[in-house]
Amino acid sequence: MNYTVKAEAFSKSKASIHIKQTEIPFGITPHTSDTLANPAELFLGSVSSCILKNVERFSEFMNFEYSRAEITINATRLEKPPRMDEINYELLIYSQDINLNLDLLKKNIEKFGTIFNTVKICCTITGTIKKISE
Predict the structure, then answer these.
(1) What whole-number percentage of the chain has pLDDT above 90?
(2) Cα angle: 45, vertex 120, 125; to 5 degrees
(3) Please, which residues have CB within 8 angstroms of residue 110's CB and are 6 or more apart in sequence?
(4) Contacts 24+ apart (CB under 8 A), 75-83
(5) How far apart (Å, rounded) are the C-alpha atoms in residues 40 and 73?
């Protein structure tokens, strides 16, 4: 499988990523740092997206239902050289389903996620999954 992403930046202004029919603006100047995501936040958004996509994927394979999932990611950035060092996530699954096996879901997410597996090669990534009964 191959992927193609295009991005463009305008000097002293703004930038955006173009993926299929999606445009994702991001900040490249101090002026936009409070309003637009920066590249590090987009990176963490990619990790979040991977995990949430796999919740949906594994809900089919593991035969459980959920109404929604929510993830919060915190990360530590080192300065020299600049890089992510530690990533921690908390995944909340809103579900009444007794078939939801959180340990197996976590194992599957951490074994079969493309972005997750890429990230864990270069930094520590840990997390917890909690079921929220509605």
Answers:
(1) 97
(2) 65
(3) 116, 120
(4) 75/40, 75/44, 77/40, 83/122, 83/123
(5) 12
Please count the other Cβ atoms lying within 10 Å of the Cβ belonging to residue 86. Answer: 13
Residue range 49-65, pLDDT digits in tens: 999 999 999 999 999 99
For 92, the enclosing helix (H) or strand (E) is strand 83-94
Name all contacts of 30-33 with Cβ < 8 Å and 24+ positions apart: none
Q: Which two tokens stand for residue 55?
A: 């919740």
- Residues counted in the chain: 134
Secondary structure of residue 62 in the 3-state scheme:
coil
Query: Can you give the pTM of this predicted structure?
Result: 0.93
